[in-house]
Amino acid sequence: MRLVHGDDAVLTQNNSASFSDSAVIERDDPRWIMAARLQLRIENHLRFHPLRGIEGEHSEMIEQCVAGGFSPMHARVIVQIVERACARGGLDGQAMDELLRLPAPVRQLKTNHRAIVFGLLGVWAIVIAGFVVTASKVMAMG
Q: Is the Cβ–Cβ distance between 19 and 1 less than 8 Å?
């Protein structure tokens, strides 16, 4: 497993015999970020509720992945990958390989961002139309 931290630094770690040495994942990769968040969630749940399993958390973790832009199917796979990795002691090279096989989520603008973008485009359209009307009146007068 190799984690890329910045432009030139690379962290290499050999935790599992089944991973490929060519597996490289950026530290801001949404798959890795989601997996790390889920691992922390599982660890915290088990720390504060050691006698209960994580079955109750399963659907909420899937919803968390879906909210992060993953499809429901890929969300289930990510949760399973993280659960297996936690059983092995944490995210490792094998989990990295499995995560890299999944497609990264497509970033979509949130609804409020869409409204802002379209609002700004509308304002620009009105400003341009105002200039065109003013210019045509000036040309007609002169």
A: yes
The DSSP output letter for 5 is E
* Structure confidence by residue, pLDDT tens digits, 87-133: 899 999 899 999 999 998 876 555 667 778 888 888 888 989 888 88
Amino acid at 22: S
20 close to 101: Cβ distance less than 8 angstroms: no
Q: Tokens representing 60?
A: 């909420």
CA nearest neighbour of 36 among 98, 94, 78: 78
Q: Quick one: which H or E segment has residue 123?
A: helix 111-141
Q: Is the pTM of this model over 0.85?
A: no
Residue 89's region, left for phi above 0, alpha for psi from -120 to 50, else beta, is left
Q: CB–CB of 120/43 below 8 Å? A: no
pLDDT of 105? 84
* Residues 121, 127: Cα–Cα separation, whole Å: 10
